[in-house]
Amino acid sequence: MLNLIQKYNVQGPRYTSYPTVPYWDINSFSGKAWNETLQKSFEESNDTEGISLYIHLPYCESMCTFCGCHKRISKRHEVEMPYIRSVLKEWRLYCDLFDSKPIIKELHLGGGTPTFFSPEHLKMLIDGIFRHAERSDLHEFSFEGHPNNTSKEHLQTLFDLGFRRVSYGVQDYSEKVQRAIHRVQPFEKVKKVTEWSREIGYTSVGHDIIFGLPHQKNNDIRQTIDKTNELRPDRLAFYSYAHVPWLKGNGQRGFKDEDLPGAEEKRQLYELGKDLLTEAGYYEIGMDHFALKSDSLYKAFEAGTMHRNFMGYTDSKTQLMIGLGASSISDSWYSFAQNVKSIEEYQHLVDHDIIPIYRGHMLSEEDLVIRRHILNLMCRMQTSWEDESQQFNDLELVLEHLHEMELDGLVNTNTNKLSVTETGRPFIRNVCMAFDLLMHRKAPEKRVFSMTI
After folding, report:
1. Could you count the other beta carbons within 10 Å of the beta carbon of residue 19?
2. How far apart are CA 112 and CA 42, in angstroms?
3. What percent of the chain has pLDDT above 90?
4. Is the sign of the CA dihedral 352, 358, 362, 367 positive or negative?
5. Which domains occur in the chain, in start order?
6. What is the 8-class DSSP label of residue 23?
7. How does DSSP classify residue 304?
8. Which residues pair with 362 in a beta bridge?
9. How far, in Å, CA of 393 to CA of 391, rounded?
10. What is the rounded CA–CA span in Å between residue 147 and residue 371?
11. Count H helices, E strands: the chain?
12. 128-to-67, 125, 330 alpha-carbon distances in Å
C-alpha cells in the first residue's frame, strides 16, 4: 500500500461536479444562458422529481482552522434578519422565472454555521421559502448543526418544519487536536445534541470526522471512533483533511505544516478508522462515507440510486439544484452558476433585483457524458460505455490512463465496463481523474486542489 500511496498521492479534485470549478469556461457563460437552462431543467423535472434547494448560511462565531468553506466570523446576531431577507428575495427572483410552483424534494441548510441563526429566524426563513413552493411527498430536509450552539429549540423548530436529518461536525475528540483546529467541543455536548435529536424524532443523525488533522495520531482516531460508536450515528462522513491554505488565506494557517501527518501516516489513520468503523457495523458507501444498514443513504447505495452534487451525497437524484445565499452554487444539469462570495455584494445585487451569480459554466455534450461517468464512479464505484450515448472521442486516452491502475489492482476493465476494486476505493479520486479530459488537456498552472491521499 505504501508504494501505491507514494505513486498516487497527487493533487486532485473531489468531484462534487464535472467540470470542476477551475475548469469552468466563464467566458462563454452568461446570465441569460443560465436562465434558459434553468427553465429547461425545471420544465423537464419539477413535476416528476422536484428540485433540490441548498441555502448557504455563512456566519460563524469563531474560526475553525480546518475549514475550507466560505464564511463570515461574527458575534453580531443582528446580521441574521437582513441576510434572511436577502435569501428570500433571491428565491423570489428564481420563482419569477418559473411558470409553476417549485416542488422541493431536498432542502439543506449549510454553512458556515446554520445554528448561528436563532430558531425563530430559521422558521421565518423556511416559512418564507414555502410561500412560493410546495413540499414533495418524498421530501428530505437536512441541516448542519454545531454541537456547541445547537439547542433543543433549534432541533424542535426544524423538526416541526419537516427536517428529519441532521449532521454534526465532530472532527476529533482529542483536546490537543481540537485546540489546534480551534474547535473545542467536549464529547458530552455531542452526546447531548445526538440524544436530543433522537428524542425529538430525527430519523438520520450523522457525524463528520476528519483524519489527517494536525497532531492527530492513531490513538486519537481510535478514541474518536470508540466514542462515536457509543452514540451510534446513522451515518458518518470520514473526511480527509484538505490542506489548501493557498486558497483559503490565513484560515488554515493556525498550525505549522510539520504538525500535519505525512502521506503514509495519514493513510494509516484512514485504514485504522475504516477498520474500526467496519468492525462497528458501518458500511463504506461512496467516497468518505459510511452508514448503518438501516440508514437511507446505505439503502440508496445498495439500490444504485445514490446521487452526488454540490451538497455531497444524497439519497436520490434531482436534476435541478438551486443554491441560495452568498457563494452558493446552482446546478441545472446543463450548466453551473455560482453566486458572488461577498455578503455585501450579494445583498446589494439582490436588493436591485439581480440574481447574484458571477461565474458559471455551460456543459458541452462531451462534458455531459464525462460527468455521467464520474458520477457513476463516485456513487456506484463502476461505470460503463456499452451504450453508444456514453462513448466519447477520447475514450482510448482514458483507457490508457486506466491501464496502469489496472496493473496496480485498483480497477478492473473489459471492453466496455470499469469497476473499482476494494483496493482501489481509497484512490477513487485518481480513478475519476483518468476521465477528466479537461485536466489531461491542460494541467493547472498553479496549485488548486488538495492531495488525493
Report:
1. 23
2. 28
3. 77
4. negative
5. 1-19+365-453 (1.10.10.920), 23-324 (3.80.30.20)
6. G
7. T
8. 335
9. 7
10. 36
11. 16, 19
12. 29, 5, 20
Element (H, E) at 53: strand 51-57
pLDDT digits (tens, 9 = 90+) for 290-314: 999 999 999 999 998 999 988 889 8
Residue in the block written with cell 458500511: 283
Report helix, strand or coil for 229. helix
CA–CA gap between residue 342 and residue 336 (Å, rounded):
19
Alpha carbon of residue 436 to chain centroid: 19
| Angle between helix 187-200 and 152-160 (nearest 10) | 30
* Burial tier of 187 (Cβ tally within 10 Å: 0-12, 13-18, 19+): middle
Query: Taking 50 as the threshold, does the pLDDT of residue 246 lie above it?
Result: no
pLDDT of residue 243: 62
Alpha helices in 280-352 (DSSP H): 296-303, 343-351
- Bridge partners for 238 per DSSP: 209
For residue 23, the cross-strand partners are none
Three-class DSSP category at 338: strand
Please tell me whether residue 453 adopts helix, strand or coil conformation.
Answer: coil
Q: Is the pLDDT of residue 69 over 90?
A: no
Burial of 301 per CB tally in 10 Å (0-12, 13-18, 19+): buried
Report d(CA 414, CA 258) in Å as an integer: 43
How close are the terminal C-alpha atoms of the chain, in Å? 12
Q: Are the beta carbons of 102 and 135 closer than 8 angstroms? A: no
- Find the mean pLDDT for residues 445-449: 61
146 CA to centre of own chain = 17
Residue 242 has pLDDT above 80, yes or no: no
pTM of the model: 0.93
Q: Bridge-partner residues for 51, per DSSP?
A: 104
Sign of CA pseudo-dihedral 167, 342, 38, 95: positive
* Complete DSSP assignment for 160-172: HTTEEEEEEEEE-
255 has pLDDT over 90:
no
